[in-house]
Amino acid sequence: ASRPEAYVRALMKGCRCVELDCWEGSNREPVIYHGHTLTSKILFRDVIESIRDHAFKHSSYPLILSLENHCGLEQQSTMAHHLKTMLGDMLLIQPVEGDLSKQLPSPEQLKGKILVKGKKLSENKTDPRVYLISNREEEMQEEE
């Protein structure tokens, strides 16, 4: 099932890392679905809303959103807007206090926070297909 409820079920079972496969959607709204599978497309903003409402009901420990991003810069900007406006103070934007080169923050320090993990497209690559192709070319060059 690819409805926000599937993410809610995972969170209510104590899951602390959720993968979101983000793709270009119509009407400038990114969608989430697992590419090349039989899952239905759901709006990114609907999933973020569900995550906001259920992220810390079962556990107060940090939640990691692992973004598999296939969107161009415009829809990435939309995603960033939804994350900031919907998650508000839950979203970890600024580093926590301390010297991160010596020690990362503990899960205890990050309670109630949502962390985003993902790769960002470079400024000159607005088409995700160009990014994916050039990324593959780089990997092939590294293997040589």
Automatic annotation (TrEMBL):
Coiled coil: none annotated. It is an enzyme of class 3 (hydrolase). Its EC number is 3.1.4.11. Residues 2-119 form the Phosphatidylinositol-specific phospholipase C X domain. The keyword Lipid metabolism applies. It catalyses: a 1,2-diacyl-sn-glycero-3-phospho-(1D-myo-inositol-4,5-bisphosphate) + H2O = 1D-myo-inositol 1,4,5-trisphosphate + a 1,2-diacyl-sn-glycerol + H(+). Pfam families: PI-PLC-X. GO terms for cellular component: plasma membrane. GO terms for biological process: intracellular signal transduction; lipid catabolic process. GO terms for molecular function: phosphatidylinositol-4,5-bisphosphate phospholipase C activity. The keyword RNA-binding does not apply. Keywords: Hydrolase, Lipid degradation, Lipid metabolism. PANTHER family: 1-PHOSPHATIDYLINOSITOL 4,5-BISPHOSPHATE PHOSPHODIESTERASE DELTA-3 (PTHR10336:SF33), PHOSPHOINOSITIDE-SPECIFIC PHOSPHOLIPASE C FAMILY PROTEIN (PTHR10336). This is Phosphoinositide phospholipase C.
